[in-house]
UniProtKB/TrEMBL annotation:
<dbReference type="InterPro" id="IPR037401">
    <property type="entry name" value="SnoaL-like"/>
</dbReference>
<protein>
    <submittedName>
        <fullName>Nuclear transport factor 2</fullName>
    </submittedName>
</protein>
<dbReference type="InterPro" id="IPR032710">
    <property type="entry name" value="NTF2-like_dom_sf"/>
</dbReference>
<dbReference type="Pfam" id="PF12680">
    <property type="entry name" value="SnoaL_2"/>
</dbReference>
<feature type="domain" description="SnoaL-like">
    <location>
        <begin position="30"/>
        <end position="77"/>
    </location>
</feature>
Amino acid sequence: MTLAEDLPLTTESASVTEIKIEGITEPVLVRYFETLNAGDFQATAALFAPQGTMYPPFEEPKVGKDAIAAYLEAEAQGMILSPNQGIAETLEDGLIDIKVSGKVQTRWFGVNVSWSFVINSEREILEATIKLLASPQELLSMKK
């Protein structure tokens, strides 16, 4: 028996599906989706630079790891993110601009989403912008 076989699986680790995004291999981005799906919002926030910013839909920007973790704790419970494909572009200043498309399933609805990330040379997320891709009528029917 190997050491890995000796380690018990936790319910949390057993329920997390491996994330594969066509066109994207950036580990910090894969980890972003994995930690969000696992409900480990502190780990998600830790992927951001100290002054990293999340731009959620219909909300004010969340700046800094604590603000991002608090927002996710309040708003992302039970969400399952399913990124499908993406493209990455290295910018002149060494930053990486990544666009990802996919879906988010909540307890009440599913919606197509696009994510836009800017990653620095230290492989920290500087910006994450989340946009819902739905018609105005669909968005109104989702309103709490």
